[in-house]
Each structure stands twice: as C-alpha cells, then as structure tokens.
Amino acid sequence: MRHNKEGVLLNGMYYLWKNGYHASGINDILQSCDIPKGSFYNMFTTKEDFCVEALELYCNMLHTSMEEYLTDKEYLPLDRLKNFYMYQIEQSIEEGAIRGCMMCNLSLEMGAASKKVRKELTQQLHTNWQLIEKCVTEAENKGMVTDSISASQAATLIQNNWFGALLKTKATGKVEALNAFLVDTFEIITSFE
C-alpha cells in the first residue's frame, strides 16, 4: 500500500502540534498516520527531518490564513490584524486545552536543540513578521499608527507580544494573556489623533 506523504505530514503535524516533539515518539507518529515504520523512513530520513517538514506545512497553512485576513479590504488594516489574532486564539484552544501555536511550541522545545529546526523557525518567523509589517505599513499610511513607532518596530512588537502571550497562556493554562494581547498591543501602536 502506498502512503501519501502530504497526508502523513498533515496527520503527523497535528500530532506533533498537540503533543510536542519530545513527547511524540516515532511509534506515536506512525500510529497517528497509520503507516508502517519503513514507509515513514522512505519519506523522512529522521524524526527531526519530519519535524522540519511538518513545521513548514504548519507555517504555510498559517501564512495562507494570515494573508487572507490581512488583505481583507472590508476591514481597516489594524482591524484585520485583530481579526486574525482573534481567529488564532480560537485555534489555540482545543476542547478546553490550550494547544497554542506549533511554531511557538517548537521554538521553546527545539529552537536551541536542533539547527535544522532553528533554521526553519527563523525563516518562518521572518515570513510571519513580513506579513504583519506589510499590514502595519498600510495602517501607518492611513494615519492609524502612532508617530512614535515605525511600522517595522510595530510589527516586531506585535510578533513578540503575541509569542509572549502564547507562552504565558501555556504556562498558566489561562487565556487572559491572549485577550490582554489584543487590547494592550494595539493600544500601544494606535494613533489617537
């Protein structure tokens, strides 16, 4: 029986996202994807390589979603960003459990331990930042962003605050930090003129 690599990556990605790298043994991943070990190793050289490809798939899905939200001309640019993050908050919570963001989770777990994963994370974080910065620049051009911060700085602030709120949410098991992110971060960058 032939196994579809994209299907294996998708199923394995969700397993990895929910359970983390170290808590996801090869047998767990095999079982979640319903494939034999030989098929897995025909597709991926190592578990680390699988992790990198699963992370890339996750980030491609995330960035596609970001682009849809951040280019929706029905809303003003900062509202588009807020709408995207409200959607992300909904996606971060699964059946009462806080799943968080796979990119953030793997940054904490594997960023210092794997050069391959760190390289992928670095690329994906930059793409993520660029999408935010493009939307903030549009808001800046409409006079919606305070003069005391550049679009580049605002994008960095948004990204850093989001990942910090995700970390705090995972640590406390409560979503208050994510909700505070939506209010506090945008108050800092918004022009009140």
What can you see in these coordinates?
The protein is mainly alpha-helical and 193 residues long. Helices cover 74% and strands 2% of the residues. It has helices at 5-19, 26-33, 37-43, 47-70, 77-92, 102-110, 115-141, 151-172, 176-189, and strands at residues 93-94, 97-98. A two-stranded antiparallel ribbon has the order 1-2. Strand 1 (93-94) and strand 2 (97-98) form a beta hairpin. Helix 1 (5-19) packs across helix 2 (26-33), helix 1 (5-19) packs across helix 4 and helix 7 (115-141) packs across helix 8 (151-172).
Gyration radius, in Å: 18 Å
Classify the helix fraction into a percent range: over 70%
What portion of residues belong to β-strands?
A: under 5%
Q: Which geometry do the CA atoms define?
A: elongated
Largest sheet: 2 strands, antiparallel
Strand order of the largest sheet: 1-2
Terminal CA distance: 64 Å
Spans of at least 5 consecutive residues with low confidence? none
Q: Structural class of the secondary structure composition?
A: mainly alpha
Number of helices: 9
Order of helices and strands: HHHHHEEHHHH
The average pLDDT value, as a whole number, equals 91
Q: What are its keywords?
A:
9 helices; 193 residues; two-stranded antiparallel sheet; mainly alpha
Entry summary:
By secondary structure, the chain is an all-alpha fold. The chain contains nine helices and two strands; from the N terminus they run αααααββαααα. Helix 1 crosses helix 4 and helix 8 (151-172) runs antiparallel to helix 9.
